[in-house]
Structures are given as structure tokens and as C-alpha cells.
Amino acid sequence: MTIHLRSDRVIFRFSGPDAHRLINDVVTGVMPTSAEEPASLWALLSPQGKILAEGLAAWAEDALWLDVHQSVADDFFKRMRMYRLRAKVDIDDFRETHRMGFSAEPTHLAHRDRRGPVTLGFRIIAPVEATADWSDDTAYHTARIGNGILHQGNDFPPNDTFAHDIGMDILDGIDFVKGCYVGQEVVSRMKHRGTARRRPVIVSGIDAPAGTPVIAGGREAGTIGQVVDGKAVAILRLDRITDPDAVTVDGKPVTLALPAWATYQFGEAVTEDAE
């Protein structure tokens, strides 16, 4: 069995009688309550609705296990300790002891990575000593880019992007039923007023690094994320893509495609600017 090491992800474990309530009250997603459930997509938002951290959450061994990109791990840890207040929650930072991986089959501490209609195998968590023979994560990024899935740190920076921008409302990363959480007012407004105008788009035929602008009609529509085998996911202004066949990156023509799960179309415009 091949396991691909996600070396840029950090694991935190939240345990104690108030752990589930704490996470559920702070982040966007639906938090699992049993080990049989797949991992749940979530984001921690700023009061302005921008993503500060994002990842998957899974229940195992009477605790919630969350992963974040290494670039935001310190800030996430600090914020969660602040939100904890007097709640009976232990927060364990597993940077030194555990690693995260991706596999097509379950092994070690495994939960299915399911984001709405998209299934990306299993998220694997194991002690460092068990990961020596894990492969690099190129296969994982190939799979998630092909499905139009964006990751913080690889594709966009912290405190820059709304949850709707990366499709979390479609990929089951937002619980629209539960009560308030940080940034909830912005998320609800974007949903009910239809103000999401930036969305994930798969870009192929790229010969340029991540962060290069996507040009449509002479105007920048967004930038590309991590590039693997000439393909990336970009967060693009849909209203600026009036002719998908006339788009360039670094002066060269590229091909655009909407993810299979997309409920949006090129050329869509909104009546109100959420930014």
C-alpha cells in the first residue's frame, strides 16, 4: 500500500468533554461525532469572513483530529487556546510526533476524505517512526487539482479568501443550520444575497509558477495555485470570463474547465460586491 506524505500539514488533537462543542462553535463545518463518519471539511474564519485556517476534522479515540497547513499552525494554535477559555478541552500539538498522509486505502488512523461529491481517498495519521517509507505527495496534488480542490498554503494565503471563493458552500464545508461561529454573518450574507463572484476553476496548459495572473479580456481575473504537470486550480472572477477560449497565463493560452461539482458558470455576475 502506498501512502503519500503530506509534509506541509500539521495535526492537532482536541480532547475532553467540551472538545466537540468548542470546535463546532468556532469553525464553519459539520463536526463528526463518530469514527465511522468521513472527515469533515472546515475553516476558521476572521470576523470579516476570510479564511485563517482550513482542513479536515475527524473523530477518533474520543477526540477530534484537525489538520492545518504548517504556515498557519502557530496562529491556529494560539487562537484555539484563546477561544477555549474555561472549556474542558485539551489541545495537543502533534508537530513533533505525528505526520499526515494520503492513501487510496485505510491504514493507521484513517478517515475518508470526502468533500461533498468529491472523494479523495483517505486522510492518514501515524506516528513519525511509521512514516519513513511514505512517498511524496505529488499523486495527492494531482488528484485534488484534477477535482478542482484548493488548499491554503498551496493555492492561497491566509486572511485573503472567503469560504465561498474555494467552494466550501458546495463541498459541504459550511454548516448553514448550526448557530453562530466566527465570520458566520459574512458567510450567510454571501449565500442569501448570491454575492460570491470568485470561484475555483481548473486551468490546464500552464507554463508558469503559482501566483501568476490569469488574464481574460485584457484584465486579471485571478491567479493560479500550485502547478502540477501543467495544471492548477485558480480562484477566478467569473464575470470576467466571458470567453473561456481566450484566456492566457504568462502570455500563453491556457484551457479552463469548471470542476465537475460546480453549480456556477463562466460569465456570471453578481449584483453586490461582498468585498
UniProtKB/TrEMBL annotation:
<dbReference type="InterPro" id="IPR017703">
    <property type="entry name" value="YgfZ/GCV_T_CS"/>
</dbReference>
<dbReference type="InterPro" id="IPR057460">
    <property type="entry name" value="CAF17_C"/>
</dbReference>
<protein>
    <recommendedName>
        <fullName>CAF17 C-terminal domain-containing protein</fullName>
    </recommendedName>
</protein>
<dbReference type="GO" id="GO:0016226">
    <property type="term" value="P:iron-sulfur cluster assembly"/>
</dbReference>
<dbReference type="InterPro" id="IPR045179">
    <property type="entry name" value="YgfZ/GcvT"/>
</dbReference>
<dbReference type="InterPro" id="IPR027266">
    <property type="entry name" value="TrmE/GcvT-like"/>
</dbReference>
<feature type="domain" description="CAF17 C-terminal">
    <location>
        <begin position="197"/>
        <end position="263"/>
    </location>
</feature>
<dbReference type="Pfam" id="PF25455">
    <property type="entry name" value="Beta-barrel_CAF17_C"/>
</dbReference>
<keyword id="KW-0809">Transit peptide</keyword>
